[in-house]
């Protein structure tokens, strides 16, 4: 009688248990996480290690991140050496064969895009250079499309039962992206051909998409903090070229860009470069809305 009762309990528990465990996806930054949520829907649990307002070049390889990765079915990285300072240590500390480099559970999204600024061997060693190309490619929405396709393909490989769902979600994502791209292109059109200054070399893809020009950077070399002499040169450049915009991320020091803006006609625009960098940037599409609205508002004023 007692046995009969416990068998019933087990049967009831089995019936109530979810039919399918979700795929656990861990990403280094917020942007692949946002795209994975859009494509994976309710078949995935997604966690990004880097917060949206953190500098993605530097992250502490915390033990809790290794625990997250130990349980992961898929680890997505931006690649092109963006995470070179911490991703290898995290993978080593995770003790999870599934997410090792080269395994189906490891997805380097830079493989899906065409990198810009690939540095010839002779020119390497100048500041914090990413020799295989600039890693800030998610700031071109067309690269977001390529990332989404690569993510959908990998989720389908790891979870074949979900293939139809991933394909449908991808189609919906691409349709919305196409519509948003028309909106963003219209807002950015008046700025085509204009020269701007950016803090870091992180806007290359964005600038190439919207046909802006970068006259120079606040950093004297990539990853090297601003210095007075270069800042003085920038002020002269801003004056002589009539530059109206300095674009920077919120996690960099504002003092030098503020100084340039206070002494010239240029306006300083501080924007997130990742989902979650500000409250309103909840999705990949929101991120471009926030960036492009801030730029066009500054250009109009
Ligand atoms: Zn960088």
Written overview of the protein:
This protein is of the alpha/beta class and 301 residues long. It has 10 helices and 8 strands. Strands 2-1-3-4 form a 4-stranded parallel sheet, with helices on one face. Strands 6-5-7-8 form a 4-stranded parallel sheet, with helices on both faces. Helix 8 packs parallel to helix 9. The longest helix has 26 residues. It starts with a helix and ends with a helix. The mean pLDDT is 93. It binds zinc ion (ZN). Zinc ion (ZN) binds next to loops.
Order of helices and strands: HEHEHEHEHHEHEHEHEH
Give the number of helices.
Answer: 10
* Shape field: globular
- The portion of residues forming beta strands comes to 5-15%
The helical percent reads 40-55%
Total number of strands = 8
Structural class: alpha/beta
Which kinds of small molecule does this entry bind, naming each only once? Answer: zinc ion
Main sheet, how many strands, which sense, barrel? Answer: 4 strands, parallel
Q: What do the pLDDT scores average to?
A: 93
Provide the descriptors you would attach to this structure in a database record:
8 strands; 4-stranded parallel β-sheet; alpha/beta; 301 residues; binds zinc ion
Concise account of the structure shown:
The chain has 301 residues and is of the alpha/beta class. Helix content is 44%, strand content 12%.
